[in-house]
Amino acid sequence: MLNQISHYLAAYEDLYGAMLPTEAIRRSIEDRLLGRESIGGIAAGRSWEWTPASGGLSGASVWRVTDGKQGFAFRCWGKGADLARLAWISSTLRFAKSSGLAFIAAPIGPPFHDAHECLWEATAWLPGEPLSESAYESTAVREAVSGLARAHQSLMVTEAQPTSGRTLEERLSRVLTLQSTPPLFDLSTLTAWPELGELAVRLTADANRAAKQLAPFALREWDLQPIHGDARPEHFLMSEGKLTGLIDFGAMRRDTVLADVARLAGELSLGDAARRDEVVGFYETAAERPMDRAAVAALDLAGAVLSAANWLRWLGEKQAESFDAELVRQRLRAIAARLLA
Questions:
Q1: Which of 105, 206, 208, 250 is 20 to 30 A from 178 via CA?
Q2: What are the φ/ψ torsions at residue 121 (nearest 5 degrees)?
């Protein structure tokens, strides 16, 4: 996904000459996304300020749009977005929000193509600061995990019944591919990004280890339902100890909830198995059902291996130049901690 965003942002900068769209384009987007067609003409007569959103590696594709009192998040999906998929995501999130989950970032109105056929979407700007993965605090983590469990319960009833499938089989296939076809990179990449060195050296061995750990679960049938798909700590916004925002559903898909639990627990624990089990325990309490902790551990390891491979490819192809270098390095260090534990 970062690869796609990076390519798109470069093209978008060529179109507009800057990361911020022209005033004419901004006004047309405001009128369509905040105008009469969607939520009663909020944009009419107001002066809106656009600023790039911060806090994540994909933040440059999201703008905060505010008049000083009311704020919105405007996201550009780029050209060629899958409209059917976005419609499914939007309707699913609106259902979840209408069920009482005020912290869900649900789209407002229909998406809108600007003059360059780039697709835009708006949500309310949700308050709070991202959950910290570097300063683990049990009370805040418990609150965030409880919110994830409530979101899963709400999303589950958007379908008559969860279906079953072998989504872990696809992950195993991707990990096995790394054993025979690791990403290509050169020494200049490792010179520019020394944090990649250990990841590159260990990748094949780590892929072998992840494949062995994941294999027993790959052919098992798992209940599938809509999940967040990228349940990283930075997508959980906290304010005064409460979950105020669950954001960035661009990777939303039908999968086992274990995938979300493993992503969040893995990135919060950074290789600490006891801490990962604590996070999973919080989820079990909130969801009132047990989790297969061995499967969570296998998914965490596989996810770290696949993330390492993705960064080797992206940085080798110089696809991450649009992102904050320190954020990239933080991500690389976090992946290494999960793999080296």
A1: 250
A2: -145, 150
